Amino acid sequence: PCFSAITEAGCVHDKIVCSGGRVSVEEPEFYWVNTVLGNLKGALRSSYHAIRPKYAQRYLAEFQYRFHRRFNLSALIPRLVYVSLRTPP
């Protein structure tokens, strides 16, 4: 039921059942999921003293912005300035 939008988009959702813990870390299907979640947790812990649920969407948006531009580091700051100036308060 919760994956109906995925089905409507023509994609298939295959569930993988594992026992959790160390076994799930060794599953090749979860390698990049674990990597991205680890990067997200590390970015949040190192950037913010306290994390508030009210601002969770903003934290995730910032992580997403940096994640998608991680290979073009020289353009990161100029692009951030550009977007900051064009974004309404």
TrEMBL record:
Q: Which residues form the ISXO2-like transposase domain?
A: 2-67
Give one Pfam family, short name only. Answer: DDE_Tnp_IS1595
- Cross-referenced InterPro entries: Tnp_ISXO2-like
What is the protein name stated in its UniProt record? Transposase
